[in-house]
């Protein structure tokens, strides 16, 4: 029976490590060189108010958490300006139906003519909107975002390696528990140390070479993020929005906004 557990552990270890190596190579090969940035579509004051050092607030959100994080940022931004009401039941209600930039207009369009919609439905609608795709395309062109062709990326592959390491430990424990009396359990556990060394060693190399992991940002994109590349956000950008863009809804200090996003499945 222990041989079956051993084969499962080895298969999981080898497959997960191979996927991590493939993801790292694909991300490196698919990252284009920097290209001239097109002129932003937002108004000058609106764009300046949303910029960090070289990145807009929307770009920071996309690089940190993808289009769903960007959707959360625009909803909270409009809620803080009292142009949207986000209820703790997970509903968004329009107060001011005028968007200040293409992403805000896309959010209002996603909410619909009734002026009220569930936040998960708004997120899903924004993911496929042209305004959000333009943000993503601009980042990919600049070499800051991972192209869609190579996602899921390194972050997901690292999580697979971590899961494989846990599976190896559980398989070893099950084999030890089911070993017949008088069996050489030391030799049995020594066999399981092989896939464990493989997974932990690959994880350690990834931690040293590839951290911080991201399914969205390239290494160059990670360096542009405040706190990662040691570049502070612009003073005009509210700190709460920068924190939301970088760390997600769990980092919000406003309990009402946090409840609204979490009750909607954020």
Notes on the protein architecture:
This protein is mainly α and 266 residues long. The chain has 11 helices and 3 strands, in the order αααββαβααααααα. The chain crosses the membrane at residues 160-179, 186-206. Residues 1-26 form the signal peptide.
List the helices and strands and how they pair.
Elements: H1 2-30, H2 44-49, H3 57-80, E1 84-86, E2 91-94, H4 102-111, E3 116-118, H5 119-127, H6 130-141, H7 154-178, H8 185-209, H9 219-224, H10 239-247, H11 255-263
Antiparallel strand pairs: 1-2, 2-3
Transmembrane segments: 160-179, 186-206
Organism: Streptomyces glebosus
InterPro entries: Ser/Gly_Cys_C_dom
Number of helices: 11
Question: What would the average pLDDT be, to the nearest integer?
Answer: 80
Biggest beta sheet summary:
3 strands, antiparallel
Spans with pLDDT under 50 lasting ≥5 residues? 33-53, 228-235
Shape: elongated
Provide the number of structural domains: 2
Give the number of DSSP strands: 3
Tell me roughly what share of residues is in helical segments. 55-70%
Strand order of the largest sheet: 1-2-3
Beta-sheet strand percentage?
Answer: under 5%
State the separation between the terminal residues, measured CA to CA: 42 Å
Structural class: mainly alpha
Round the Cα radius of gyration to an integer and report it.
23 Å
Instruction: Please write the string of helix (H) and strand (E) elements.
Output: HHHEEHEHHHHHHH
């Amino acid at each position: 029976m222990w041989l079956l557990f051993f084969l499962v552990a080895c298969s999981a270890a080898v497959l997960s490590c191979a996927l991590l190596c493939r993801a790292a190579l694909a991300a490196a090969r698919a990252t284009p060189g920097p290209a001239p940035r097109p002129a932003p579509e937002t108004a000058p004051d609106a764009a300046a108010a949303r910029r960090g050092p070289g990145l807009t607030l929307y770009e920071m959100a996309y690089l940190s958490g993808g289009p769903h994080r960007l959707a959360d940022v625009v909803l909270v931004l409009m809620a803080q300006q009292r142009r949207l009401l986000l209820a703790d039941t997970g509903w968004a209600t329009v107060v001011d139906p005028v968007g200040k930039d293409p992403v805000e207009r896309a959010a209002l369009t996603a909410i619909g003519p009734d002026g009220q919609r569930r936040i998960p439905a708004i997120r899903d609608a924004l993911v496929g909107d042209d305004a959000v795709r333009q943000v993503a395309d601009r980042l990919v062109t600049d070499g800051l975002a991972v192209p869609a062709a190579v996602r899921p990326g390194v972050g997901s592959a690292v999580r697979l390696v971590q899961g494989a390491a846990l599976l190896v430990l559980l398989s070893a424990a099950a084999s030890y528990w089911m070993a017949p009396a008088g069996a050489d359990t030391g030799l049995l556990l020594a066999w399981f140390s092989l896939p464990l060394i493989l997974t932990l060693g690959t994880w350690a190399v990834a931690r040293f070479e590839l951290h911080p992991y991201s399914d969205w940002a390239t290494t160059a994109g990670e360096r542009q993020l405040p706190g990662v590349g040691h570049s502070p956000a612009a003073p005009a950008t509210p700190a709460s929005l920068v924190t939301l863009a970088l760390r997600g809804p769990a980092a919000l200090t406003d309990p009402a906004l946090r409840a609204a996003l979490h009750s909607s499945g954020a």
